[in-house]
Amino acid sequence: MNVEKISAVTLRIVNMRDSVRFYRDVLGMEPYLRRRSAQFFNGHGHVFASVQLLKETSTSVGRG
């Protein structure tokens, strides 16, 4: 299997404010949709990222 590109990434984080600042100010990604525990970003029209707040009681990472 050859991966040609990655178009979207979701990361689980513990600090929403710091994560938004990093994606916006350091990586230059534009926030475009905010949910209660998630923020979505558009990276120059080609890459999309989202950060999802990790619940303190959860030990799993990923979907499920």
Fold blueprint:
Blueprint: E1 8-13, H1 16-26, E2 30-35, E3 38-43, E4 47-53
Parallel strand pairs: 1-4
Antiparallel strand pairs: 2-3, 3-4
Could you explain how this protein is built, in words?
This protein has one domain: 2,3-Dihydroxybiphenyl 1,2-Dioxygenase, domain 1 (Roll). Strands 1-4-3-2 form a 4-stranded mixed beta sheet, covered by helices on one side. It is an alpha+beta fold. It has 1 helix and 4 strands, in the order βαβββ. It has one helix spanning 16-26; strands at residues 8-13, 30-35, 38-43, 47-53.
Order of helices and strands: EHEEE
Shape: globular
| Structure class | alpha+beta
* Poorly predicted parts: 57-64
CATH superfamily membership, which one? 2,3-Dihydroxybiphenyl 1,2-Dioxygenase, domain 1
Distance between the termini: 25 Å
Kindly report the average pLDDT value.
Answer: 82
Taking all Cα atoms into account, the compactness measure Rg is: 13 Å
Q: Helix count?
A: 1
Which bin fits the share of residues in helices? 10-25%
The largest pleated sheet is described as:
4 strands, mixed
Q: How many structural domains?
A: 1
Instruction: Give the DSSP E fraction (strand runs of 2 or more residues).
Output: 35-45%
Q: So, CATH architecture?
A: Roll
